[in-house]
Amino acid sequence: MSAHDNPKAPSPIARPVVVSVLPSAGFAVRIEAGEAEREALAKTHGLASVDSFVAELDLKRWRKDGVRIRGTVKARIVQECIVTLAPVPAELDVSVDAVFLPEGSRLARPLDDDGAMIVDPDGPDLPETFDGGVIDAGAVAEEFFELAIDPYPRAPGAELEQPADAADDDGDGGADNPFAKLAALRDKL
């Protein structure tokens, strides 16, 4: 889900947590990104700037070998308007709730009696897997941050101009309609 050019590249806000030493009461992780980390986040996600980034996460054991991560990610970002390229500030406040299981765990992919994967579109997300006994809490926070970014930010009042002939086209296949032009070419053949 990440916008990284290289999906194997570490998160700019990487905070690895060793699962085997996770206390039974859980472990709190606070990530307050420094200037260099915010600049890297902005570059990675195509933002004009990331003015603040704070993640407050609680990691707790889930079932026997799993880990549940809950918390929030709060950030102030600036994007470019897709119409005018003017700066568009935004505040993100994202809830984080994710479950991780070790690679190969049978709980990671619930199957029915026929071996088909059970997916409930209205239910919680399926657990993700981790490998090597380490979960990167920073990468999890970054993933939820990325999902909250508006892919098409617009400055207030920014509108695309309609071409003069587009307002008159009622979709009836007039001469300026590109499909009408293709049909005319087909008829000539």
How would you characterize the overall build of this protein?
This protein is of the alpha+beta class and 189 residues long. It folds into 2 domains: 16-158, no CATH class; 163-189, no CATH class. Helices cover 20% and strands 32% of the residues. It contains 4 helices and 7 strands. The chain has helices at 35-44, 137-148, 164-168, 178-188; strands at residues 16-18, 27-32, 49-62, 66-80, 87-102, 128-130, 134-136. The strands form 2 sheets. It has a 5-stranded mixed β-sheet with strand order 2-3-4-5-6, with helices on one face. A two-stranded antiparallel ribbon has the order 1-7. Strand 4 and strand 5 (87-102) form a beta hairpin. The model is unreliable at 1-5 (pLDDT under 50).
How many domains make up the 3D coordinates? 2
Rg computed from alpha carbons, rounded to a whole number of angstroms = 23 Å
The chain-level structural class is alpha+beta
Mean pLDDT: 83
The percent range for strand residues is: 25-35%
Number of helices: 4
Order of helices and strands: EEHEEEEEHHH
Report helical residue fraction. Answer: 10-25%
Weakly predicted, low-confidence segments:
1-5
Distance between the termini: 47 Å
Biggest sheet strand line-up: 2-3-4-5-6
Number of strands: 7
The coarse overall form would be extended
Main sheet makeup: 5 strands, mixed
